[in-house]
């Protein structure tokens, strides 16, 4: 049986041979793309075509008496071979007909990129033209090339919808061919900048850069959420600056970062959740004076990096004061923190409720990543992280029935709930990252087990897509591990499982993680892809006949999900080297600081 990638390719070729597409237009398109191929690329395609011809004629050794009887069949075979070659060229055009783009030149080395005064910052470093075709030399890696190109194609399709129906706006509504605004700052475009660069989509990147240069302004009377705008906008601009060396993005980051500073003007130094970037005022939500723990402790990577690049310590000082205060606070439970903290008193609220899901998740992620970013010198961050992992193991882990899946539940005033948000699927990757940087090997075993659980959250759903929230059955007579309440059956195109698959594959090289990711991508294409462009979140992962589109493509689908798919399918560990970069919680890579910092 053919592997999935080759089955898909053969299906395409068969569709071509049976006339399921416009033959004349396809031949013209094939000829145009053929003329664009390099001599080496043409040689490889002709070599493959020759092999198919030889194989075809080998099936019919006698050509004279039986020619008439077999004419139609032979012509079909020849037509099939020709269309197969055309389909090959169509799916792997000159700009992408390779196993993986050479990364040398596409990224400034981390040490160089972290120098704010480097002359190289004056202009962007463009990705190297991928003219070298390795497929003929290493056919065993064809699935890798196919999958990488499938991610690029998915991005182009999503970008097509955004460009046609939501250009310059925050997020696409692909079904209604419209858009929705959150901050009015081109959120999807900024979130996707470094994804385009990593995927080598130069044309799309250049048109986005032009919009940033000519249209993006922060002189808007609008309230933005401190956390969401930091991880998506500030993080996206800083990351793109480091990858490209283009000073435009650093200047925009400086402007935006400075406008977020009023959020920290609180009695407790715990920042407000919202800030008006034009008026310079900030406030908590209308219904409470609390901020969530994830909001106030998952902005540190970005503000610390902004201080390092600008030489102005104020950004780093305000976010590290938050970490110092949280480190000293009472109300933790074995290193686990409550979900809320009050901006007036600086104290935890809703004490007794502990989760790794919404409102607390990235607190734990950023403990580890700040320690890595800073060169592993800030011991308080490491201590808090290690203690939290011990608290998770002691209080939140249980096994399901019948498969015995290890899952992370929640604790509410001593009562355990078998509820696990999809957001928690960041944890396997974070644990694996910690082991890579020297933390206990037992964390990797836990990462593997939790990765299997997150995989099952997809596999056990009829669409092959995970719900937003799962409840795990623990009774001995259960027939299925994962149960989903009607209100939790939606899928928002989230990245966390693919993110962890990337880390697990990068560190273990176990190809099952790539296979799992490929299955998820196919499910996204089957149930969330909108023909006119874009992908939509859906309401019901349990109904493959009517998943019910929600008509929204979150910016993180381009900023995170597709980026992690690409990195998962790539075998090149130098594409975002994890000894040189650390991802923020929106998948924007920022450099690990040199030891001299």
UniProtKB/TrEMBL annotation:
Localization terms from the record: Endoplasmic reticulum membrane
InterPro entries for this protein: 6hp_glycosidase-like_sf, Glyco_hydro_47, Glycosyl_Hydrolase_47, Seven-hairpin_glycosidases
GO molecular-function terms, A-Z: calcium ion binding; mannosyl-oligosaccharide 1,2-alpha-mannosidase activity
Disulphide bond pairs: 425-454
GO cellular component labels: endoplasmic reticulum membrane
Transmembrane segments: 44-63
UniProt topology in membrane: Single-pass type II membrane protein
Domain of life: Eukaryota
Pathway entry: Protein modification; protein glycosylation
Its EC number(s): 3.2.1.-
Cofactor: Ca(2+)
Residues reported in the UniProt entry to bind Ca(2+): 585
GO BP: carbohydrate metabolic process; ERAD pathway
Top EC category: hydrolase
Keywords, comma-separated and alphabetical: Calcium, Disulfide bond, Endoplasmic reticulum, Glycosidase, Hydrolase, Membrane, Metal-binding, Signal-anchor, Transmembrane, Transmembrane helix
Reactions this protein catalyses: N(4)-(alpha-D-Man-(1->2)-alpha-D-Man-(1->2)-alpha-D-Man-(1->3)-[alpha-D-Man-(1->3)-[alpha-D-Man-(1->2)-alpha-D-Man-(1->6)]-alpha-D-Man-(1->6)]-beta-D-Man-(1->4)-beta-D-GlcNAc-(1->4)-beta-D-GlcNAc)-L-asparaginyl-[protein] (N-glucan mannose isomer 8A1,2,3B1,3) + 3 H2O = N(4)-(alpha-D-Man-(1->3)-[alpha-D-Man-(1->3)-[alpha-D-Man-(1->6)]-alpha-D-Man-(1->6)]-beta-D-Man-(1->4)-beta-D-GlcNAc-(1->4)-beta-D-GlcNAc)-L-asparaginyl-[protein] (N-glucan mannose isomer 5A1,2) + 3 beta-D-mannose; N(4)-(alpha-D-Man-(1->2)-alpha-D-Man-(1->2)-alpha-D-Man-(1->3)-[alpha-D-Man-(1->2)-alpha-D-Man-(1->3)-[alpha-D-Man-(1->2)-alpha-D-Man-(1->6)]-alpha-D-Man-(1->6)]-beta-D-Man-(1->4)-beta-D-GlcNAc-(1->4)-beta-D-GlcNAc)-L-asparaginyl-[protein] (N-glucan mannose isomer 9A1,2,3B1,2,3) + 4 H2O = N(4)-(alpha-D-Man-(1->3)-[alpha-D-Man-(1->3)-[alpha-D-Man-(1->6)]-alpha-D-Man-(1->6)]-beta-D-Man-(1->4)-beta-D-GlcNAc-(1->4)-beta-D-GlcNAc)-L-asparaginyl-[protein] (N-glucan mannose isomer 5A1,2) + 4 beta-D-mannose
Catalytic site positions: 228, 361, 468, 496
Predominant cellular place of this UniProt entry's protein: endoplasmic reticulum
Family label: Belongs to the glycosyl hydrolase 47 family.
Physiological role: Involved in glycoprotein quality control targeting of misfolded glycoproteins for degradation. It primarily trims a single alpha-1,2-linked mannose residue from Man(9)GlcNAc(2) to produce Man(8)GlcNAc(2), but at high enzyme concentrations, as found in the ER quality control compartment (ERQC), it further trims the carbohydrates to Man(5-6)GlcNAc(2).
Matching PANTHER family: ENDOPLASMIC RETICULUM MANNOSYL-OLIGOSACCHARIDE 1,2-ALPHA-MANNOSIDASE (PTHR11742:SF55), MANNOSYL-OLIGOSACCHARIDE ALPHA-1,2-MANNOSIDASE-RELATED (PTHR11742)
Protein name according to UniProt: alpha-1,2-Mannosidase
């Amino acid at each position: 049986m053919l592997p999935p990638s080759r089955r898909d390719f053969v299906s395409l070729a068969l569709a071509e041979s049976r006339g399921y597409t416009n033959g004349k237009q396809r031949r013209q398109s094939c000829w145009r793309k053929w003329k664009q191929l390099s001599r080496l690329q043409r040689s490889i395609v002709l070599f493959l075509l020759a092999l198919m011809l030889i194989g075809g004629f080998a099936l019919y050794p006698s050509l004279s008496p039986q020619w008439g009887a077999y004419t139609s069949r032979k012509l079909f075979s020849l037509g099939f071979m020709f269309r197969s070659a055309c389909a090959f060229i169509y799916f792997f055009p000159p700009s992408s007909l390779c196993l993986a783009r050479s990364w040398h030149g596409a990224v400034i080395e981390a040490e160089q990129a972290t120098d704010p005064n480097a002359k190289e910052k004056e202009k962007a470093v463009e990705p190297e033209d991928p003219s070298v075709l390795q497929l003929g030399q290493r056919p065993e890696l064809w699935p890798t090339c196919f999958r990488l190109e499938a991610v690029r194609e998915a991005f182009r399709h999503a970008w097509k919808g955004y460009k046609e129906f939501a250009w310059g706006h925050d997020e696409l509504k692909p079904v209604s061919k419209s858009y929705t605004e959150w901050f009015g700052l081109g959120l999807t475009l900024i979130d996707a900048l470094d994804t385009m660069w990593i995927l080598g989509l130069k044309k799309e990147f250049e048109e986005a850069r032009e919009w940033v240069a000519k249209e993006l302004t922060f002189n808007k009377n609008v309230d933005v959420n401190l956390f969401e705008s930091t991880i998506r906008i500030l993080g996206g601009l800083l990351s793109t600056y480091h990858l490209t060396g283009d000073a435009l993005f650093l200047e925009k980051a400086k402007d935006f970062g400075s406008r977020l500073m009023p959020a920290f003007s609180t009695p407790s130094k715990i920042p407000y959740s919202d800030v008006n970037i034009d008026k310079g005022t900030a406030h908590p939500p209308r219904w409470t004076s609390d901020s969530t723990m994830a909001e106030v402790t998952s902005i540190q990577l970005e503000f610390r990096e902004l201080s390092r690049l600008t030489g102005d310590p104020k950004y780093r000082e305000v976010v590290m004061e938050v970490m110092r205060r949280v480190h000293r606070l009472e109300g933790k439970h074995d290193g686990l923190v409550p979900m809320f903290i009050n901006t007036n008193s600086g104290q935890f609220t809703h004490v007794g409720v502990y989760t790794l899901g919404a409102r607390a998740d990235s607190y734990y992620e950023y403990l580890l990543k700040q320690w890595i970013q800073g060169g592993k010198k800030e011991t308080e961050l490491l201590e808090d992280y290690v203690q939290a992992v011990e608290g998770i193991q002691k209080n939140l882990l249980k096994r399901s029935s019948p498969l015995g899946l290890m899952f992370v539940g929640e604790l509410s005033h001593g009562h355990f709930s078998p509820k696990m948000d999809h957001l928690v699927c960041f944890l396997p990757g974070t644990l694996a990252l910690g082991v890579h940087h020297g933390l206990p090997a037992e964390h990797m075993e836990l990462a593997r087990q939790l990765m299997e659980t997150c995989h099952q959250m997809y596999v056990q759903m009829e669409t092959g897509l995970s719900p937003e929230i799962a409840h795990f059955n623990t009774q001995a007579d259960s027939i299925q591990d994962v149960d989903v309440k009607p209100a939790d059956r939606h899928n928002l195109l989230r990245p966390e499982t693919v993110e962890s698959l990337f880390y697990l594959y990068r560190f273990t090289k176990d190809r099952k993680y790539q296979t799992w990711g490929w299955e998820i991508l196919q499910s996204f294409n089957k149930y969330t892809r909108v023909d006119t462009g874009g992908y939509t979140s859906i309401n019901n992962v349990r109904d493959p006949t009517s998943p019910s589109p929600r008509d929204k493509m979150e910016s993180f689908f381009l900023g995170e999900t597709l980026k992690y798919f690409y990195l998962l399918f790539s075998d090149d560990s130098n594409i975002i080297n994890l000894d040189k970069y650390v991802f923020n919680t929106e998948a924007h890579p920022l450099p690990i600081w040199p030891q001299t910092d």
